[in-house]
Fold:
Amino acid sequence: MLAIGHRGACGYQPENTLASFRHAAKLGCPWIELDVYFVQGRLIVIHDDDLTRTTNGTGLVMDSSFDYLRSLDAGHGEQIPTLQEVLDVVDTCMNINVELKGPGTAEPVSELLTTVCQHNWHSDQFLISSFKHDELARADSAFRRGALFGRPSDDMIMRSKQLGAYSLNISLRLVDPDLINLAHQAGLQIYVYTVNEPQDIEQLRSWGVDGVFSDFPDRVMDNQKK
Ligand code: G3P
Ligand code: MG
Structure:
């Protein structure tokens, strides 16, 4: 079962910052997840569409200038990073799940990842995911896709297959053994978010889940050692 550091290792460092990604690397985490928006031609890494919760700024990400976003404190004096900066810091030591949060992110993410794959990265080191399936469908099919689901629905497997997804990425609230079996029969990996309690991690492992997103990815790695 893969340990996927949620927004880096955001139980320990401010989410979606270079400090959080560095901490995940220090923990030995094999995968990290991050969220992206495309602002004034630059891909930036932040979760909310509003700046208030995670920065000292105000207003909407998509209404802000890139310079304003970069002037903000995203926690512990960290800047909101660009995706390019994260790629540089990670330097192929961890695999990356890029979650498309903002509009118009599929094409620039695909272009950037294609470029880095012509150098030191390999396409298998990335997973592109989104709750916005129209956006996800525009991601370059050279990269694995993760179809994200946060609400109950009867057609999750069918929609994942239609998207050409590699994985079905689902909320902890919605997962059960039947769905896991059906996903596996359909040739899909199943990744579950956001799983922080050791007993939940253990249960998902016993059910045969393929990966879990955790704010404390070391807890997932500790579970594997048992
Ligand atoms: O990709 C897993 C998880 O990050 C999805 O939810 O809201 O944390 O981006 P959210
Ligand atoms: Mg996310």
Notes: Residues 106-117 form the longest helix (12 residues). The pocket of SN-glycerol-3-phosphate (ligand 1) is lined by residues 6, 33, 35, 47, 99, 129, 148, 169, 193-194, 213 (CB under 6 Å).
